[in-house]
UniProtKB/TrEMBL annotation:
InterPro entries: BTB/POZ_dom (IPR000210), NPH3/RPT2-like (IPR043454), NPH3_dom (IPR027356), SKP1/BTB/POZ_sf (IPR011333). PROSITE patterns: BTB, NPH3. Belongs to the NPH3 family. Residues 30-98 form the BTB domain. Residues 203-470 form the NPH3 domain. It comes from Acer negundo (Box elder). Pfam families: BTB, NPH3. Keywords: Coiled coil, Ubl conjugation pathway. Pathway: Protein modification; protein ubiquitination. This is Phototropic-responsive NPH3 family protein. Residues 508-542 form a coiled coil.
Length: 596
């Protein structure tokens, strides 16, 4: 008991003693003095022993010495509750209310004011009030629970707390059911349905419960869960309670509040907003809560990370000076939880991702959103001078390779990191650049990367190679619009989305096969371009020498020879000669060797 509580009890004892002088018998001298919590009461033995079994026993034990002074140690409620009990012994009327019924129950148990010693005693009167008044009203139950905070553990042993908690849970559940029925309505077709837009009036108790101490609040929430109260209502109550308590509590009690709220979070997703989970996680990190609570929050956040915002991930680092500005380790664990959760979903339903190459499956959509979120996060933390390369790379590499269809965001983040950390060695720059698939850069990002002096020379060469490949591929599309195979290859090469949407176990083999096809196509493209230039010269010469039908005949014959990817029509075309086939093979071999 602290000094403030002691002073408060002394003040109550003094005021009780003053009031005692007003109602006590003045014409009969006092024959016993009762001391309670620093206060003294000059009373009479007969009224007390007629109702209180404890006082009767104390006087009986000292009958020979004619005891005149009794000290009651640790009486629940102190002098204030004893004054009410003494009034009851003297037959003086007073009102039992929600503010004193808890004290009366505990005091009557301590003083043994039961039916065994007197009929219709104080204990039975207080019990009757709890059953008939308190348990019928939710707000009154909350008031009694507040009074019981200072009466534990006796109030718990007398089942005052448990009866109030059960009453609150049942009342909240009943209110919710009634509110649900009130929102039922018939549609135009005559079918009964729930009006989701109507305001739910069954959660008015949320504000009332916010006044309870954390241990009692925890028990109320657990009882509500068992009764079947909606997870959304539980989540709303937790949010309201956390907002009030965490703004006024100290560090020690604050950590207990956070850990308790985390343990009470509903298991259902979206029962609480993700920004509330991030707020709890920030508080848990700042207050140094238990590892289990933080890991639980990280797991919950990871399961719905695709709906998070960039500001949510920017968790300040509360460690020693010289550390990173933001808590990168916590974000990494959240990403690992997201990836593991994604893998577990894939294992349960492989057809959703692995066997179906559709990029629109739910898990793939979540991957795209998280990949974009991670790239923005990397760009935000990249300027931090204390951010080590290993931490930057581990965040970038956490997601699987097929999560990013476009690498513009990752390239931007890496470029910012290179600009802020100019003392990186060439080997470290190469490590960073290997994270980027330059084939998945947009035209604008590719043009920027081709002139970026911060990138290693090898990376710039790769960018130039893929830019040239894209240009040649676009050129091939303009000459072969009606041929399906070239169009299919060009879309796959230029966008990179098809291979990105494939499953991870097939992606590597597909990329190798696609790389070989690209090399062959590039070799054929160079050879055909040379042929095209030669035929163009011949056509100009024929146009100068020939006229009309003769020119058109020659033009048709030469066009038939210029099938861009080696395909010939069913009529009017001739096969390439053996000499040209050997020439093609040599050109292909030289081109593949140079690209390797």
């Amino acid at each position: 008991m602290d000094i403030k509580q002691q002073q408060q009890q002394l003040s109550l004892a003094k005021s009780s003693r003053q009031r005692c002088n007003e109602w006590i018998f003045r014409d009969v001298p006092s024959d016993i003095t009762i001391e309670v919590s620093g206060g003294t009461f000059a009373l009479h033995k007969f009224p007390l022993v007629s109702r209180s079994g404890r006082i009767r026993k104390l006087i009986a034990e000292h009958r020979d010495s004619d005891i005149s002074r009794v000290e009651l140690l640790n009486l629940p409620g102190g002098a204030e509750s004893f004054e009410l009990a003494a009034k009851f012994c003297y037959g003086i009327n007073f009102e039992i209310t929600s503010a004193n019924v808890g004290q009366l129950c505990c005091a009557s148990d301590y003083l043994e004011m039961t039916e065994e010693f007197s009929k219709d005693n104080l204990g039975s009167r207080a019990e009757e009030y709890i059953d008939s008044i308190v348990c019928k009203n939710l707000e009154v139950c909350v008031e009694v629970l507040q009074q019981c905070e200072n009466l534990l553990p006796l109030a718990d042993e007398l089942k005052i707390v448990s009866r109030c908690i059960d009453a609150i849970a049942s009342k909240a559940c009943a209110e919710q059911i009634a509110s649900s029925f009130s929102r039922l309505e018939y549609s135009s077709s005559g079918r009964l349905h729930m009006n989701r837009q109507a305001k739910c009036e069954g959660d008015w108790w949320i504000e009332d419960l916010s006044v309870l101490r954390i241990d009692l609040y925890q028990r109320v929430m657990m009882a509500m869960k068992c009764r079947g109260v909606r997870p959304e209502s539980i989540g709303a109550s937790l949010m309201n309670y956390a907002q009030k308590e965490l703004t006024k509590t100290k560090v020690d009690s604050g950590s207990n509040v956070v850990e308790t709220i985390v343990s009470l979070l509903p298991v259902e997703k979206l029962a609480v907003p993700i920004n509330f989970l991030f707020g709890l996680l920030r508080s848990a990190v700042m207050l140094d809560c238990s590892v289990g609570s933080r890991l639980d929050l990280e797991r919950r956040i990871g399961s719905q990370l695709d709906i998070a915002a960039l500001d949510d991930l920017l968790i300040p680092s509360f460690r020693h000076a010289g550390d990173t500005l933001f808590d990168v380790d916590t974000v990494h664990r959240i990403l690992v939880n997201f990836s593991q959760q994604d893998d577990s979903e894939d294992d349960m339903d492989d057809a959703s991702v692995f066997e179906s190459d559709s990029p629109h499956s739910p898990s793939q959509t979540a991957l795209y959103k998280v990949a974009k979120l991670v790239d923005n996060y990397l760009a935000e933390i990249a300027p931090d001078a204390n951010l080590k390369l290993s931490k930057f790379m581990v965040i970038a590499e956490t997601l699987p390779a097929h999560a990013r269809t476009v690498h513009d965001g990752l390239y931007r983040a890496i470029d910012i990191y290179l600009k802020a950390h100019q003392n990186l060695s060439d080997s470290d720059k190469k490590k960073l650049s290997k994270l980027i698939d330059f084939q998945k850069l947009s035209q604008e990002a590719g043009a920027h990367a081709a002139q970026n002096e911060r990138l290693p020379l090898q990376s710039i060469v790769q960018v130039l190679y893929f830019e040239q490949l894209r240009l040649r591929n676009n050129l091939s599309c303009s000459y072969a619009d009606e041929e399906q195979k070239p169009v299919h290859h060009s879309w796959r090469i230029s966008s990179g989305a098809l291979s990105a949407a494939m499953s991870p176990r097939d992606n590597y083999a597909s990329l190798r096969r696609e790389n070989r096809e690209l090399k062959l196509e590039l070799a054929r493209l160079r050879m055909r371009l040379n042929d095209l230039e030669k035929e163009h010269v011949c056509m100009k010469r024929d146009m100068e020498k020939s006229h009309s039908r003769k020119f058109m005949t020659s033009f048709s014959r030469k066009i038939g020879k210029l099938s861009f990817f080696g395909h010939t029509s069913s009529r009017g075309s001739s096969s390439p000669s053996k000499h040209s086939y050997r020439t093609d093979s040599k050109v292909i071999e030289r081109t593949c060797a140079s690209t390797d």
